[in-house]
């Protein structure tokens, strides 16, 4: 259960990339990036992730994600905040998959809006994340992820 929550956090972090990549454009824009975050488990199925995503041609963007897990499924929302204070919000759904690298979380991310130039933003993306708890019974850990997609604002 804990590993699943951690992976969910990674996916959330990936969602942050769409916001940052769009910051330099005035219309449909592709984005890709990678990031890291600190995962905090709260309760049996809830988690939050805070971190930074480095978006190609944009730079570092802060993010905060909150979500839940149920079995191999994960859902969460993420708010990405750019250096100028503009935000992009996303919602994500996905599953955990077994790979050679261990359990990897793969999500489909939907841009649901934002503030400033991103008010009314839309778009979609995908995230792949891997999480690691500090120890077997820990409630904190780290997540690493990559993401890519499109945003229109």
Mind sketching the topology for me?
Layout: H1 2-22, E1 29-42, E2 46-55, E3 59-70, E4 73-81, E5 87-99, E6 102-114, E7 122-133, E8 140-152
Antiparallel strand pairs: 1-2, 1-8, 2-3, 3-4, 4-5, 5-6, 6-7, 7-8
Question: Which keywords apply here?
Answer:
single chain, 153 residues, mainly beta, eight-stranded antiparallel barrel, globular
Structure description:
With 153 residues, the protein is mainly beta. It is 14% helix and 63% strand. The protein is built from one helix and eight strands, in the order H-E-E-E-E-E-E-E-E. It has an eight-stranded antiparallel barrel with strand order 1-2-3-4-5-6-7-8. A hairpin with a 7-residue loop joins strand 6 and strand 7. The longest helix has 21 residues, at 2-22. The N and C termini lie far apart (37 Å). Mean pLDDT is 84; it is low at 1-24.
Quote the distance from N terminus to C terminus: 37 Å
Shape: globular
User: What number is the mean pLDDT?
Assistant: 84
- As a whole number of angstroms, the C-alpha radius of gyration is 14 Å
- Give a quick account of the main beta sheet: strands, pairing sense, barrel closure: 8 strands, antiparallel, barrel
Structural class by secondary-structure content: mainly beta
What is the number of helical segments per DSSP (H or I, 4+ residues)? 1
Percent of residues in beta strands: over 45%
Q: What order do the helices and strands follow? A: HEEEEEEEE
Count of strand segments = 8
Helix content: 10-25%
Order of strands, widest sheet: 1-2-3-4-5-6-7-8
Low-confidence stretches: 1-24
């Amino acid at each position: 259960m804990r590993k699943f929550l951690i992976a969910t956090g990674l996916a959330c972090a990936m969602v942050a990339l769409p916001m940052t990549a769009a910051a330099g454009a005035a219309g449909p824009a592709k984005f890709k990036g990678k990031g890291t975050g600190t995962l905090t488990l709260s309760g049996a199925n809830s988690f939050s992730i805070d971190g930074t995503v480095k978006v190609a041609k944009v730079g570092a963007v802060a993010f905060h994600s909150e979500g839940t897990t149920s079995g191999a499924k994960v859902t969460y929302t993420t708010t990405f905040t750019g250096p100028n204070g503009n935000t992009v919000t996303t919602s994500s759904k996905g599953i955990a998959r077994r790979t050679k690298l261990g359990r990897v979380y793969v999500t489909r991310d939907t841009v649901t809006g934002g503030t400033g130039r991103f008010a009314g933003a839309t778009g979609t993306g995908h995230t792949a994340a891997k999480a690691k708890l500090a120890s077997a019974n820990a409630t904190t850990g780290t997540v690493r992820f990559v993401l890519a997609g499109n945003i229109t604002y």
